[in-house]
Amino acid sequence: MYWTVIIVAIIVGFWLLDLIIEMLDSKSMVTELPEKLKGIYDDEKYEKSQAYGSEKTRFGLIQATLSMIIMLLMIFLGGFNWVDQIAIQVTDNDILRGLIFGAILMVGSSLVSLPFSYYNTFVIEEKYGFNKSTLKIFIMDIIKGAILGAIIFALLFSIIIWFFSTDKIPMAWLWAWGAITAIQLLMMYLVPVVLLPIFNKFEELEDCELKDAILAYAKKENFKLGGIFKMDGSKRSSKANAFFTGFGKFKRIVLFDTLIEKHTVNELVLVLAHEMGHFKLKHILKHLIIMILSTGLMFFCFDLLIGNEGLFAAFRMEHISVYASLIFIMVLFEPITFVIGIFTNMMSRKFEYEADAYAAKTCDGGDDLITALKNLTADNLGNLTPHPLKVFLEYSHPTLLQRWESLENAGLLNNTDTA
């Protein structure tokens, strides 16, 4: 009985926490911006940004509420057991049973989320002028994502089930941890070279002032690049972004075409200097270490709780299995994931300040970085005054005002009024 109480408390508790956070965040929207942030939006666009944020919040809460209800119904009406009985009738092989069990749950989850994804893309994002996607692109993304997701899921789930189902392997959680970590590291090389091009077109940035400026900065900082690429982000959204991906010789700069169109060369160099700062200051490595350790902790919990009869009784299961244990323990692991997330977000915000400072110091001031951030925020209708609790719990980046004041306090802005 207490397992049922724990599971329901976790599911409902996190839904309530999300509800409270979003209510506080909605109330933190102010009619008048702090003096420093005035001018980023005109009055009309500021009202539009608040309307956009409110609509996204309401939509997210509706989706979260439905997900919670479905999860509780699956537990109390024996939905997981029904899915398991299908898998048991199909095959005697534990790995194949696990794949069938997981696949049915994934398909069900995808079918529930599909209408929400469609509404978000073609109603909300369309309403506020962001959506550039077509129904064909939307459907193809779903098909490609489903195929890739199925392949990756089958590989990872099969490996985990095999290790924990084999009695001859002592300390199976350590071996599973090592195997999954190796695959995670491999994926860091495969993602930029193999996976991302499946969804988007990547072109080597043509010779131009921007490319020359980026290469000159990278050379000055002794930063080796595997390439500078332009991505056709505009085929899905008008929102702009840039990111680094890969490691070693596969390390690439990726610029959305929308970003190149909307920002000056100096602004873009500062944005990329910030990203290079993450590499130079070993932030990527530190995040990787946290990810690996978190994975290890998760597998240790698996080892402790796999096959727990009380846990299976709470989910109304008739048959105890390794594969179902993995799914159920993920629910129990949620509070640990939440705590780890708070820690990693705190660390990430600290890293953002450090990368901002790195960019400012190596580019003779951070004025263009702040200008770029202001423009990105305005173009994306970002929330300029999020509630401090939401920032603390969920934000991996400091707010625009916090980043601005950090550079200002460090004396890294040449013009504090117009940056």
How many domain regions? 2
Structural class based on helices, strands and sheet pairing: mainly alpha
Q: How many helical stretches?
A: 16
Low-confidence runs (pLDDT<50, min 5 residues)? Answer: none
Give me the strand/helix succession. Answer: HHHHHHEHEEEHHHHHHHHH
Average predicted local confidence, pLDDT:
91
Instruction: Write down the Rg.
Output: 24 Å
Give a description of the structure.
The chain has 419 residues and is mostly helical. It folds into two domains: 2-132 and 280-409, no CATH class; 203-266, Zincin-like. It has 16 helices and four strands. The protein has helices spanning 2-27, 43-76, 79-90, 94-127, 135-165, 172-199, 209-220, 257-262, 265-280, 283-305, 309-314, 322-332, 334-362, 367-379, 388-394, 400-409, and strands at 202-204, 228-231, 242-245, 252-256. Strands 1-2-4-3 form a four-stranded mixed sheet, with helices on both faces. Strand 3 and strand 4 form a beta hairpin. The longest helix is centred in the first third of the chain and has 34 residues, at 43-76. The radius of gyration is 24 Å and the shape is globular. The mean pLDDT is 91.
